[in-house]
Amino acid sequence: MSPSIQPKSYESLAPQKVAFIGLGVMGYPMAGHLAQAGHQVTVYNRNQAKAEQWSAEFKQEWAATPALAAAQADIVMACVGNDDDLRAIFLGPDGALAGMKAGSLFIDHTTASAEVAQELGALAANQNVAFIDAPISGGQAGAQKGMLSIMCGGKTEDMERARPLMMSYAQACTLMGPLGSGQLCKMVNQIAVVGLLQALAEAMAFGERAGLDMEQALSVLTKGAARSWQMETKGPTMLARDFQPGFTVNWMLKDLDLVQQEAQRNGAQLPGTRLIQEQFAKIAEQGHRDLDISSLFSLLARPSDAS
C-alpha cells in the first residue's frame, strides 16, 4: 500500500480508463485510491513535478495538459481550487473538455459555485459529455483513508455510472438533485462546520479559564450530547495548539465567500456564519492563512497559553 494512502477495501470492478486533474492534498490520495483499486489512471497537475511524483509512486501515467490526460479516458475527475481554476482546466484548447470523447463523464470534486457547475455542465452537454458536481467533505485524513463524503448534483444515470468509481475514495456518495445541488449541499456543510468549530473553540477556552482538565473534559463530552466529529478530531489539536493544516483558513474563507454570495441570492439569513467568517479574516490578517481552521481557538485562548 502506498505511503500516501491508507488501507481500504475496494469494490471489485472492471478496470476503467480514468483521468484525474489536480493533485493537491485531497486529489493526490484520491487519485491514488483509484490506482490501487486497479483502474488505469492518467493524471495532470499544474505543478508537473507533483504529477511526476504521483506517477512514480503509483506506477501510472501523467500528461502535460488536461486535454491530453482526458483524451483516452471514459471518466475524468478534477479537484482544483475554485471557479477560475476549474474553468482553466476545463475550457480552451488544452482543457479537459477539448480532449473528452462523446459519451464520457466529467466529475468535478472542486468546492465551487453552483453557477459554474451549471455553466460548464451546459457546455459539456453540447459535446455529449455528462457532468456531475461532486464536492467532498472529510479533509485530508478522509481522502487518505478513502472515507470521504461526497454530495452530488446531476442526472441519476450519470450518478450511477460515477458512484462505483467514487466509492474508491468515499464512504458515501449522495445525489442531492440537478447540477449545482452538490455545491449547495457543500455550502450547508461548511455553515455547520464553522458553527461547530466556533462553539468548540469557545467551550475549550472557557474550560481552560475555569481551571478544568480539558483532556478529561473532552473524554466526558465526547460520550454525551455535545459529541461531534469536530470535537473528536479538532478538540485535542486545539488543546495541543497544533494548527498544522488539514483544511486551511484560506480555503475556508473562499468557501464562506461562496456561501455569502449564495445567501444574497436566496435571501438566507446567516448572522452567526458572518461573524465566524470575520474571525477567520482576523487570523488571515495576522498572516496565518495557511493554519488549520481549528486555529479559531487561538483567538480565544489565554495569551499565556498560546504557542
Can you tell me about this structure?
The chain has 307 residues and is an alpha/beta fold. Helix content is 49%, strand content 13%. The protein has helices at 27-36, 48-58, 66-70, 83-90, 96-99, 114-126, 139-145, 156-166, 181-209, 214-221, 229-239, 249-266, 271-285; strands spanning 17-21, 40-44, 61-62, 75-78, 105-108, 130-133, 136-137, 148-153, 170-177. The strands form 2 sheets. The protein has a 6-stranded parallel beta sheet, sandwiched between helices. The chain has a 3-stranded mixed beta sheet with strand order 7-8-9. α9 crosses α11 (229-239), α9 (181-209) crosses α12 and α9 packs across α13 (271-285). It is globular.
Q: Which structural traits does this protein have?
A:
globular, alpha/beta, 3-stranded mixed beta sheet, 49% helix, 6-stranded parallel beta sheet, 9 strands
Concise overview:
This protein is an alpha/beta fold and 307 residues long. It has helices at residues 27-36, 48-58, 66-70, 83-90, 96-99, 114-126, 139-145, 156-166, 181-209, 214-221, 229-239, 249-266, 271-285; strands at residues 17-21, 40-44, 61-62, 75-78, 105-108, 130-133, 136-137, 148-153, 170-177.
The percent range for helix content is: 40-55%
Which term fits the overall shape? globular
Count every beta strand, where a strand is a DSSP E run of 2 or more residues: 9
Strand content of the residues, in percent? Answer: 5-15%
Mean pLDDT: 95
> In which order are the strands of the major sheet placed?
3-2-1-4-5-6
Uncertain runs: none
Distance between the termini: 36 Å
